[in-house]
Amino acid sequence: MALNKSMHTRxxxxxxxxxxxxxxxxxxxxxxxxxxxxxxxxxxxxxxxEAVRALTCTLLKEDFGLTIQIPLERLIPTVPLRLxxxxxxxxxxxxxxxxxxxxxxxxxxxxxYPLLGATMNGWYFLATEVDDVCFDYATKNVEQNNLSDLxxxxxxxxxxxxxxxxKEETEIVYDFCMCNPPFFANQLEAKGxxxxxxxxxxxxxxxxxxxxxxxxxxxxxxxVKRIIHDSLQLKKRLRWYSCMLGKKCSLTPLKEELRxxxxxxxxxxxFCQGRTMRWALAWSFYDDVIVPSPPNKKRKLEKAxxxxxxxxxxxxxxxxxxxxxxxxxxxxSPVDSITALLEKTLTDLRVLHKHVxxxxxxxxxxxxxxxxxxxxxxxxxxxxxxxxxxxxxxxxSAGTTSSQTTKATATTTTTPSSQNQSCxxxxxxxxxxEETSKDVTHAPAGEQKEVLESISGGDVDMxxxxxxxxxxxxxxxxxxxxxxxxxxxxxxxxxxxxxFKCLLNVxxxxxxxxxEMHWVEGQNKDLMNQLCTYLKNTLLKSVGKC
Length: 546
Description:
Rossmann fold; seven-stranded mixed β-sheet
């Protein structure tokens, strides 16, 4: 169940997948389809229609008290996937405290959406069906679960969607409609010919369903466009129109169609369960509806909030404290020592930085990177080594001693650029750092907000001990003074263009020290990833751990 972690948060199977062993011991009809794997675990063969049907019927009975019958020659729904759709509809209609009315277009033999919606939330359903076999089974499933007062199954003509189904329902306003459109346009597409990437593995489950359930002229794209056409005439007869899609590539053209038709409210989502992905599209003509954010926007927001981080263990922190003291930097705590070493590295890299307000136990720096010096150092070092290899070797004279040669070589290879060593595998190291980071903000709320609001409007200076009101200009070190003007650190007044800005927090975590980098703004977050890895390795290589 690789995608279970991405299920809807309220899906009961998200963190607790079905226990096949327990279900087999309780339901004999299901037991015959459960086998023991080589690892000794109970498993089900999802390529057997009988096994899939037995699992669906067993889950509905065990978890919802529903008893249903499904013919093998019709579509057999999977319960976790249908639950995802039900929970998303709950999000669309904003809760489930009052009775809601919905339409299930093509309810199928199982009538699973109305059965779940009525059982879980007390929703009223109009369930439409064009297939005679599916209609008969759906009607029986509603009756044997005593839900006829909540679910009305109606037989409609072929190619009927919403318009014809609502001819007799002239005054009722429905809260939503649901639909599993036929995914495929023809038999070849249904079998995966010319429609499935050759590099993808074959489906892990059997494809069941009648012709009207899995195929339609033009496939799901044209089917949903027909629903859109109906919605343009019905408009506010339904608060939300929705459809589930089997192909992600169908989303873009359908959203574009809605945009062309001037539909004001549009959203979409993903349904993840087991090894299966599905997508859903919803639209509304009401201005007062709450529009759930699409999942990709949620992920981007979460990723934007999540900082990069790395941890310095206690033993390494002690060594770094000793190194900071030896360099003459006064530090009262491990956090102060680490911050001092980071500031030295940032100064060497010509990354502008200044202290910002934070709690007493922490240190926070606002960084402004103007040029990518952390990568250039490694490139210069490699270029210098290449040039040395290409120089012609002159014969040694009698007056040249081996010690002089050694001294000259040492002088060549200890340039300032070689001291700022980059770490290999930049992207993989930073990705690891990002995965282990914690989404927290360490400055007090008011101060942090004030700092962030002040960033975009002005330049960022180097750390300075000058009095308030004076212009802070970085002191030139002897190395910087000897550099050409283009290589010197920039003054704050000269900073008009920058690569990125970020907040660097140094904070204690029990006996360790954590360094975090929070993105603020800039051109490319990969550059912050690179700098994070550089700072991490610069510190850790001092204690023999990289």
